[in-house]
């Protein structure tokens, strides 16, 4: 500054004149000596006790209760407010991240809707529904991989600020969780509106809102998983292969490619650790839980078999012969397989759809807790 520290000196003099009446007793003497003022500051947690240059004797750390000295300058709610506001400003300054993510969800939903347009209740329609559910639920988790570089880009800032105890790590985790959650709601409704009615899924309004809830839970768990990995790995190029390969394993053991009762016993534990298993089974039960819905009638039982190529008249004759042999009247309109029967065939019977929903939500909380633990263990960076 051209005038040096003159403005600062004038400001200090004015402040002393303004505060002089408050800092003196009625007899005109200072209310606190320097030693007393420092001791009072230590007791209120404003200063950390220690030695000075020798001109003033300061009480040692043993004379000040440890609980009286605060480790952080601000309370938890103040940190939350500041960090939440900062995270919101960063998000607002980079709208292209959310726009690209929303575009990816809409494009994926549009492609799935056009491929699986208005599926019927035939055996082929059932198999096509399985494919749609597997691709849709795994897409939620793959889309969340863009959360991986968020913390990695802020890693050095976070390490520098927490080294000075500028804020708690829990405040950082919670503030970013709060700021990121509204975008997950928008993405969930965008995907559900694009696919649910176009594919012709069952359940009406109740089924639609449950579909939105399980998609939201999948986004919640997937973003938590990517966030946790960002606290473990230190490089984006290392993190993406880990995310992609792990999600591929989750899809493999989800129950789509191989039923639960067909998975070898030494791999069954991975089936229950699969993030894709729970949303996949939830949407399956949301679609096939109605016992009044029939998916295989009469001669449709020959579909997906070598007998499917037989003429329709011959199929009816085979059906009549089977009825006579079994002693059961099986006509062309007789229901062979209902929705619950199909769920039993797919071994989707150990959990309800609500159990799957809450387990998926719990996975999201667990991964954020693990992210917090990774920050505690990975950023012990006291200044030297």
From TrEMBL:
One term under GO cellular component: membrane
- Keyword Transport set for record: yes
UniProt keyword terms in alphabetical order: Membrane, Transmembrane, Transmembrane helix, Transport
Compartment(s): Membrane
How does this chain sit within the bilayer?
Multi-pass membrane protein
Domain of life, per lineage: Eukaryota
GO MF entries:
ABC-type transporter activity
Pfam families given in the database record: ABC2_membrane
Coarsely, its chief localization is membrane
The ABC-2 type transporter transmembrane domain extends over 81-288
Q: Where are the transmembrane segments?
A: 98-119, 131-152, 173-202, 208-229, 236-258, 357-378
- In Swiss-Prot or TrEMBL terms, this protein is called ABC transporter G family member 5-like
- Organismal lineage: Eukaryota, Viridiplantae, Streptophyta, Embryophyta, Tracheophyta
């Amino acid at each position: 500054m051209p005038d040096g520290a003159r403005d600062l000196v004038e400001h200090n003099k004015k402040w002393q004149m303004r505060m002089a009446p408050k800092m003196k007793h009625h007899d005109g003497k200072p209310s606190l000596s320097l030693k007393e003022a420092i001791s009072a500051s230590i007791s209120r947690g404003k200063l950390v006790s220690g030695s000075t240059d020798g001109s003033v004797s300061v009480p040692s750390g043993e004379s000040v209760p440890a609980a009286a000295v605060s480790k952080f300058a601000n309370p938890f709610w103040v940190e939350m407010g500041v960090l939440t506001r900062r995270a919101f400003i960063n998000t607002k300054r980079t709208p292209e991240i959310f726009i690209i993510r929303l575009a990816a969800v809409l494009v994926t939903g549009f492609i799935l809707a056009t491929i699986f347009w208005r599926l019927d209740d035939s055996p082929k329609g059932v198999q096509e529904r399985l494919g749609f559910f597997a691709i849709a639920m795994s897409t939620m988790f793959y889309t969340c991989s863009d959360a991986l570089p968020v913390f990695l880009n802020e890693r050095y800032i976070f390490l520098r600020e927490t080294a000075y105890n500028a804020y708690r790590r829990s405040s950082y985790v919670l503030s970013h969780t709060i700021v990121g959650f509204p975008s997950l709601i928008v993405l969930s409704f965008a995907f559900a509106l694009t696919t649910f009615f176009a594919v012709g899924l069952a359940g009406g309004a109740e089924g639609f809102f449950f579909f939105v809830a399980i998609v939201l839970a999948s986004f919640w768990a997937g973003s938590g998983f990517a966030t946790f990995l960002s606290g473990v790995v230190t490089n984006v190029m290392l993190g993406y292969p880990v995310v992609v390969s792990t999600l591929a394993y989750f899809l493999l053991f989800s129950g789509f490619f191989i039923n639960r009762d067909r998975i070898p016993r030494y791999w069954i534990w991975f089936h229950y650790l699969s993030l894709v298993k729970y949303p996949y089974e939830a949407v399956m039960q949301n679609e096939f839980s109605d016992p009044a819905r029939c998916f295989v009638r009469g001669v449709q039982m020959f579909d997906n078999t070598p007998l499917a190529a037989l003429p329709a008249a011959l199929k009816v004759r085979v059906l009549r012969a089977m009825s006579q042999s079994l002693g059961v009247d099986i006509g062309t309109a007789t229901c062979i397989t209902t929705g619950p029967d199909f769920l039993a065939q797919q071994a989707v019977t150990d959990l309800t759809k609500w159990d799957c929903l809450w387990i998926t939500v719990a996975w999201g909380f667990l991964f954020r807790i693990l992210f917090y633990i990774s920050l505690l263990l990975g950023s012990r960076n006291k200044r030297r």
